[in-house]
Amino acid sequence: MSHRVTDGLGYKEMDIISVSSSRRKSENLPYVHKVGVPPKQNLLKEISATVKETFFADDPLRHFKDQPRSRKFVLGFQAVFPIFEWGRHYSLSKFKGDLIAGLTIASLCIPQDIGYAKLANLDPQYGLYSSFVPPLVYAFMGSSRDIAIGPVAVVSLLLGSLLQDEIDSSDNPVDYRRLAFTATFFAGITQFTLGFFRLGFLIDFLSHAAIVGFMAGAAITIALQQLKGLLGIKKFTKNTDIVSVMRSVWSSVHHGWNWQTILIGVSFLAFLLVAKYIGKKKKKLFWVPAIAPLISVVLSTFFVYITRADKHGVQIVKHIRKGINPPSVDEIFFSGEYLAKGFRIGVVAGMVALTEAVAIGRTFASMKDYQLDGNKEMVALGTMNIVGSMTSCYVATGSFSRSAVNYMAGCRTAVSNIVMSCVVLLTLELITPLFKYTPNAILASIIISAVIGLIDIEAVTLIWKIDKFDFVACMGALFGVVFASVEIGLLIAVSISFAKILLQVTRPRTAILGKLPRTTVYRNILQYPDATKVPGILVVRVDSAIYFSNSNYVKERILRWLTDEEEQLKENSQPRIQYLIVEMSPVTDIDTSGIHALEELFRSLEKRDVKLVLANPGSVVIDKLHASKFPEMIGEDRIFLTVADAVLTCAPKIELEP
Q1: How far is residue 295's CA from residue 279's CA, in Å, rounded to a whole number?
Q2: What does DSSP say about strands 522-524 and 397-399: parallel, antiparallel, or unpaired?
Q3: Residues 380, 381, 387, 390: what is their CA dihedral angle, to the nearest 10 degrees?
Q4: pTM for the whole thing?
Q5: What are the Cα distances from residue 644, in Å, to 268, 514, 542?
Q6: Whole-angstrom Cα distance, residue 583 to residue 272?
Q7: Cα separations (Å) of 604 from 563, 593, 639?
Q8: pLDDT (0 to 100) of residue 38
């Protein structure tokens, strides 16, 4: 019917109808919702909300609301000592699981602790001390049900390396030990402070990729250090880099290696690795790799004793001091030249220990589906290390290998740590003299088998597939530890993590959007090749907040998109760009530099006869734009709720322009 009407009209009448219908179309556009401006907030309330969201995002005081004063006191006491909260519901069935788990991790921790103390260049008993007091403190204050507390390989190596740079452990063992206690004290202070002031988010600045690389590098370095005990070498380098270690190993091949030591070490290392493989393949046999180190110590000690292999060059532990932890408050440096050194070492060791413990705690909490308060964990870890430094302990934290065994053994609460502490207490009081003939080679084998698990090949492969920059961070940390030192590796890990943050902040992603077929949705044309551009309109999305650090880049990048697009249109003899729409959904915030950049962008576009349009600015952004009177500059009618609304409004105007 429309064809018949049109056919009956003259050309002049048809032109008049066409123009008038176009005008009616532009005048009678569908309803477009305006962008809402949030009501003005009280400055004090705004600051209060920001502080709350930054430091109290989990709303830790919600349980105290509308409670009587006596109840608030009880809740406060339980918040500091969670054992008095879950202890009310403790039962015999839970104790059975905790008892088995505690005995299992004790059998694993005793030989490991003796070896880890050697990594820190301390006497063996200090490793056992650190598995007696700190786990008891943590059991009362910690919120994780699965984490097993004690010395760990990476922190022991880091602490030993940093302390050795200040004091030689063989020349001045007393001051070395005192500096170790001082560093432990300040590690605890650092952890407690971060938790108390709710600054736990600071440890998240060390990326997962950097941690994976650092742990792998530390594992390789620790394993290489154990070649001294495994091969029976007496004169060994004190450097930790792979070049120095391998030079030291090969220079002593003809006169320093002891075949009896090698036989003991390699045999039991093979036994431990097989036990580990069995436990990995059959989850029900988790106790096999857990008890294997203790069996190795008992068998090797008995073998050395009956054969008197120590008379043939096999190095043994010799003496472990009997008895519980002696007080060490008077040994901490609270003044003098070593105070600052102890503080520096303590902060570094405390941060690394904290990162490892929180990561382990969160892993097992997610597996058992319960919430872990990171800040509360930091307070617990800090308190246990402060108390530990006063009771002859060095830095303790969550051990991944022991925590995994604890989890597999069926632990129900932190009582498993108390059971482990009781077993270590009995060991210190009764059994330590029996370790006299334990060969150093067996301790080296135990440490090597333990740290192998820190090299996560699957994680490294996944990092390579997901993010190449993360892979660079991972490899940088790994090679820094292996070829330089633990400190250099840690510095590289932190530096690359910060470099990535800076790169992402200063160089945010931007994209050109196109309309998806049969929808009103606009998406990245690189992700959706079938998305089509709107003639005469360029839609650009900014995928970041616009701050002083990236505002100039964002402005220049948008103008470069426009220039490239105009050149392409000119080559194809297509209509020029008349509207530039900036999709601002991902722009979570903007500062004065960002607003200034938008003003400069507006002026640059005016010179090119291109109109600036904004789509979907968030509440924070639109509030700041109105405060700066930017909408008055570009026009209130140039800010839309969606890109589709903006295109719907701008497209008809393009048709009317010559």
Answers
A1: 15
A2: unpaired
A3: -170
A4: 0.85
A5: 70, 10, 17
A6: 59
A7: 12, 16, 18
A8: 80
